[in-house]
Task: structure prediction
Amino acid sequence: MAGERTARVWAWIAAAREGDAPVSLAALCRAAANWLAVDGASVTVVSGLGVREPLSATGELSVRLEELLFTTGEGPGVEDFMFGSPMLIPDLELVTERWPGFVPAAVAAGARALFAFPLQAGAIRVGVLSLYRAQPGPLTPQQLADALVFGDIALQLLLDSAAGISGLAGYQPLDGLPGSRAEVYQATGMISVQLGVSLEEALVRLRAHAFAASTPLDDVAGDVVRRLLRFDPDPGPAA
Result:
């Protein structure tokens, strides 16, 4: 049964390719959105300092949700990566107190349900598969079982790419969103020096500034790197 399910999901992904394009995370996200009764899907890698880099997403809202997860440091896509288990949120409005920064912004953007699956091999976690719905509602047992297979295949594509494995000519599993977090890393280092704090604290300050200004984190990081924005230490108490 498990083998049949895996073969079926692979067939869905293959059918979601554009023309003769090879299998990729972009095709996987499209297939997940089509077959799991969700409105969008994305795959993100998570690396040093908890920096998230979206590799593929099915639409602007998926991209926006990833940006909110990264900017606020909250939400199911963050906690499932930390703890290594899926986070299934059928109604985001019911967990507003749990994630007060992320949930109101996500609901305002148009998401009401969010399901996140860590991509991991044993204790090694490399990313997250996220699914969202515009209306509240849980995944059915069948959809959940299929979503877990989508996650397994997404992990396989990521590991194949990292290992340089190419099963077919033109095999490009990471063909998806090109956006890089390089400027976020660079800005975090600059803020660390400006404030005399750790890199972890510098990233918290960068996120807080972006959230308070309702500005995408990448844009704020770009301003720091181009020296249009500087973080100054808080003045000490008056003598």
Remarks:
- The two ends are 73 Å apart (CA to CA).
- The chain has two domains: 2-163, 182-225.
- Residues 45 and 167 are 22 Å apart (CA to CA).
- The domain at 182-225 is CATH 1.10.10 (Arc Repressor Mutant, subunit A).
